[in-house]
Amino acid sequence: MRVLVTTVGLVGHIFPLVSIAHALRAAGHEILWATPQPELVAKAGLSAFDPAPGVNPMEIIQSVLAKYGLGFEISRDEYAKEVEMGGELLARLGEVTIDRTVAVARNWRPDLVLYDELQPAGPLIASKFGVPAVEQVLSVCGYREIRDGMRQHLDEVYDRHEVVGAPERSALLDTRPPSMRQQDFGGWSMRLVPHSGSSVLPDWLLEPPSRRRVAITLGTTTPGFMDLGAFRTVIEAAGQVDAEFVLATGDADISGFGELPGNVRAAGWVPLHALLSTCDSMIHHVGGGTALTGLTAGVTHLTMPVSADSWQVSEQIIKRGLGLEAAAPDEVNAEMIRAVLFDKSMRTAANEVRTEIAAMPSPADLVPRLEELAGR
Q1: Largest CA distance in the chain
Q2: Residue 224: which domain range?
Q3: In this predicted model, what pLDDT tens digit does every residue of 125-157 receive, in sequence order?
Q4: Please, which contacts does 75-81 make with residues 24 or more away whose CB atoms are closer than 8 Å?
Q5: What is the DSSP string of 117-185?
Q6: Does the residue 36 lie in any domain?
Q7: According to the model, what pLDDT value does residue 57 have?
Q8: What is the CB neighbour count within 10 angstroms for residue 337?
Q9: Is residue 229 a contact partner of residue 253, using CB atoms and an 8 Å limit?
Q10: Higher pLDDT, residue 51 or 86
């Protein structure tokens, strides 16, 4: 079976689909991935191509944000406007990948198309070639409203490719923990097996920490749009807590944090799933993939929602009893950090969610269902 994977060219859209792609490949199926960051897929050991050479996704993001008069930081009160903006933004990010992906698919002839829920190329290509479309959820909330709003911006590309209607056969892979599902999407449950990139792990990450460890991460997109100096209060608060803190900010310039306290380690880029497996808690921006990775690790959360769906994801985390929310980074203090580190009820809830995730079907368990869907 040939499986064409198509995702938006951002880390948070690529990494969540790596595990199901690996499961399909391990079962003997061919994988070809279309995304504007094909090097990330290649590093995961899978074949990929760039369907939008020369296109900078960040320029598209900035252009659409400017059109709607929004910045990267979006408040709860702007949610309705965010949904409207998000539909157009993701349509534009996906639209630039469609023409070349269709051209490649015409020669490669996929038997199934797998795509992230915010990549509109997936259902169009599946419909055009008469093959099943398989969508994967990206966060604990799902992006239903934004996803549904994308289609109205794609009439021209649908007409150009002579595609009418949705694929005749489709499925949804739902990685949300059952106890955190606000609504039933009617999909197939699948455990998220986190992929956070590949690297040689440092020695300190291979040894048990001598005291409680907390990960601090801002994801891969936030550092490109915000002055990291806004998070300086977080670092100062960490210095007042008897714990080890690991600052995982990739290649971002962290000079705005000032001199780091002695208990804060600047780790640069380390695979988040590997880091969190050694942690008790995490302080983060509440990105969809980041939050789900934390749920699988069973850590407690101190959330700092600043953009996109982070407010909704944070609400789900707090509602489930997994942590606390700071309305802004400068509201984080040592007392809040100690609470998420030592509160027994939060720890119990985190372990419960980790256990229910572990009981969900693995990506390998879903392969036979995908084969049957494709008639293989």
Answers
A1: 62
A2: 203-358
A3: 999 999 999 999 999 988 888 888 899 999 999
A4: 75/311, 76/311, 79/311, 79/312
A5: TT-THHHHHHHHHT--EEEE--SSS--HHHHHHHGGG-HHHHHHTT--S--SSEEEEE-S-GGG-SS--
A6: yes
A7: 83
A8: 24
A9: no
A10: 51
Q: What six digits make up the tokens of 90?
A: 């993701």
Q: How many residues make up the chain in this entry?
A: 376
Sheet with 133-136: strands ordered across: 48-49, 30-34, 2-6, 112-116, 133-136, 170-174, 188-189
Q: pLDDT band for 309, please (50, 70, 90 cuts).
A: confident
For residue 198, is it within any domain? no
Q: Are 128 and 161 in contact (CB under 8 A)?
A: yes
pLDDT band at 234 (very low <50, low <70, confident <90, very high): very high
What CATH number does the domain containing 77 carry? 3.40.50.2000
Q: Give every CB contact of residue 253 below 8 A, 6+ residues apart in sequence.
A: 223, 228
What's this model's pTM, rounded to 2 decimal places? Answer: 0.92
**136 with 58, same domain?**
yes
Shared domain for 225 and 104, answered yes or no, is no
Same domain, yes or no: 79 and 210: no
Cα dihedral across residues 134, 138, 141, 142: positive or negative: negative
Question: Do 131 and 230 belong together in one domain?
Answer: no
135 and 58 part of one domain: yes
Per-residue pLDDT of 157-210, as tens digits, reads 999 999 998 999 999 999 999 999 988 999 999 999 999 888 889 999 999 999
Q: How many domains does the chain have?
A: 2
